[in-house]
Specification:
The protein has helices at 32-64, 69-77, 83-93, 95-132, 144-165, 178-207, 219-253, 310-315, 347-354, 377-381, and strands at residues 296-300, 306-308, 319-326, 337-346, 362-367, 372-376, 386-391, 394-395, 405-407, 420-426, 448-453, 459-460, 466-473, 479-485, 493-494, 496-499, 506-513, 519-529, 551-557. It is an alpha+beta fold and 558 residues long. The structure holds ligand MTE and molybdenum atom.
């Protein structure tokens, strides 16, 4: 043994590696120094192996869309949370974005701990087997016991991860449909874990000497090990910088800057420009499918399932349809709703081609991000339920579901699956990502109206004519009437419908108002849908089926 040095290794991402050598320990390295050196080798090996694995995961994520455990594991857990737990986590971590960040960082932290822990255990096994059979020379300087240990650990990690992530293995951020996506994830994970195992073995092998116990130690060996440790440390620093830079790039591409974006207020137009359309996503980094990779499978309980390429879909007869979307989490008066002109194919064309079996009750929709939701079969067959590839005359922007998403008029936004990769006919009820948390079971959008102008809390001069403006939305039932009140609902009068839209869209309305005397005025709005049913007046919270009640705005006339 030539353990006449101790290595102190710092492996924080950017800090330099310090190798302090104390080449004075006398001959056969026994006892503590030997074990310390083994642990140092295990630590450094674990860090390098972990970083190599993370780089492998980054490469797979970037080029092949294979989900990394830092995103799949939180995705696996999120639907299991009940709505109150989900919201209390929002409060604790600073909203959905804060919770997403926490999810990624805690899985990353877990991976660091496990990666280093296994490195240390591996080094101990290696060193221990050296003690147990001191005289036996080892093949390639590798300990069979330690090799078995690392092989078993890699296998367990792989199988364990597959078991844990089983429902979300079919995620592929480049847009592969569930079958091939699962294959990519399963093989990708194995390659990542093998990268870890092989790197660990090689680094530890390089750092620990394979001379038999009791052999005299030469000073030159100490220097050699010191140099090898320095090289391994250098590799760790470079890999650490690589991982850090990748994380920074992902952070830039992350949804934090736009998730939860609202569209409301004085600038609201009949058609929402694509770059202002509201946005909600479960992801940390949204999918970025390419048309070349992306496929849509349509099948399930049907005669023939079929896989469509983008061109296959674009070749079918298309229709254009203006439709308003609204999130179930849209509070009264809030802006998680927008309106666009969509172009695509009625879903029923694809379903008819698949030949649904009798007994089909629902259609399960899956996105490239592993997101799922369901719609009743009848709703899927409704001619207004679309599979679309254009939004306001342009390809659908990435964050809104490029290249293809689903439009389900009259049902909350979550049913409008983005980056759709699979449409599956099912003969039993299935719960989607959010429904599992306890949302619903009714996802039909209730009639809604909102005052956009004036702003709540603003002041107006007395005697000056002003215009009250806003939107009204009746799901897929249209809007037949909008009324406003300037006295907190005591009296109502009709507003003008400036933009009637269609039965699938919101309407824009306005009303002239000249407040005469100085006071606080409580404005309110209510709508009647196209079937003649008035908007529900009593307040209901967002949870579990979306908010109900009138939007109210208070202005001061002074
Ligand atoms: N694949 C996928 N589709 C999805 C989601 C998602 O996270 N992943 N979010 C849903 C929710 S909750 C809403 S409100 C709408 C928002 O669509 P938008 O961002 O285009 O406005 O997309 C729905 N479709
Ligand atoms: Mo939503």
């Amino acid at each position: 043994m030539n353990a006449h040095e101790t290595a102190t290794i710092t492996t924080e991402e950017t800090s330099p590696v310090i190798i302090s050598e104390t080449p004075t320990i006398t001959a056969p390295a026994r006892g503590t120094a030997r074990w310390l050196r083994a642990l140092a080798a295990g630590l450094l090996g674990g860090v390098v192996a972990l970083l190599a694995m993370l780089l492998m995961m980054v490469a797979q994520r970037v080029w092949l869309g294979v989900p990394a455990p830092v995103e799949s594991i939180p995705d696996r857990i999120a639907p299991l949370l009940r709505i109150p737990e989900f919201f209390s986590l929002f409060d604790r971590f600073g909203g959905y974005n804060g919770l997403k960040r926490f999810g990624v960082l805690s899985i990353l932290g877990g991976m660091v701990a496990v990666g280093i822990g296994i490195g240390l255990l591996y080094a101990l096994f290696t060193e221990n087997s050296r003690t147990a059979e001191p005289a036996k020379p080892r093949r390639f300087g590798l300990s069979p016991v330690a090799l078995i240990f690392i092989a078993v650990v890699v296998a367990l990690l792989w199988i364990g991860t597959l078991a844990l992530e089983q429902p979300v293995l079919d995620t592929n951020f480049r847009g592969l449909p569930p079958g091939p996506a699962t294959l990519f994830t399963v093989i990708g994970l194995l390659i990542s874990y093998l990268t870890y195992g092989v790197t660990l073995v090689l680094v530890c092998r390089a750092l620990t000497n394979d001379a038999p116990l009791g052999a005299p130690s030469a000073p030159i060996a100490g220097q050699l090990l010191g140099r090898r440790a320095a090289i391994a440390g250098g590799v760790a620093v470079i890999a650490g910088i690589g991982v850090g830079a990748s994380l920074a790039r992902f952070n830039k591409r992350a949804v934090f800057s736009y998730d939860g974006r609202q569209y409301r207020g004085a600038t609201v137009q009949a058609i929402t420009p694509n770059d202002q359309f509201y946005s909600v996503t479960k992801n940390v980094v949204d999918p970025n499918p390419t048309k070349a990779f992306w496929r849509l499978t349509v099948g399930g309980t049907a005669d023939h399932s079929r896989t469509y390429s983008f061109n296959d879909l674009a070749a079918l007869a298309s229709i254009e349809q203006e439709t308003t979307l609204m999130c179930i989490s849209n509070g009264i008066g809030a802006g998680l709703m927008s309106n666009a002109q969509w172009k695509g194919v009625p879903m029923r064309i694809l379903l008819d081609a698949a030949g649904p079996h009798a007994g089909v009750v629902e259609v399960k929709l899956s996105g490239a991000d592993g997101y799922t939701d369901t719609i009743p079969f009848d709703k899927a067959m409704d001619p207004t339920t679309l599979v679309v590839y254009e939004m306001n005359g342009a390809p659908i922007p990435q964050r809104h579901g490029y290249p293809v998403r689903v439009i389900v008029p009259g049902m909350y936004g979550e049913k409008n699956v983005k980056w759709v990769t699979a449409i599956e006919l099912v003969d039993h009820p299935v719960k989607g990502f959010y429904e599992q948390q306890g949302w619903g079971p009714d996802f039909v959008i209730p009639t809604r109206s909102r005052i956009d102008v004036p702003d709540g809390g603003s002041s107006l001069p007395p005697g000056m004519p002003t215009t009250i403006r806003g939107i009204a939305f009746g799901g897929n039932r249209g809007v037949s009437r909008v009324e406003i009140s300037t006295d907190d609902g005591a009296t109502w009068r009709d507003a003008r419908i400036d933009y009637p839209g269609t039965h699938l869209t919101w309407a824009l309305w306005s009303a002239d108002w000249t407040p005469t005397r100085p006071a606080m005025y409580h404005l309110a709005v209510r709508a009647t849908d196209g079937t003649g049913t008035p908007q529900i007046s009593t307040f209901q919270d967002i949870v579990p089926q979306g908010a109900r009640g009138y939007d109210r705005v208070t202005v001061r006339v002074v």
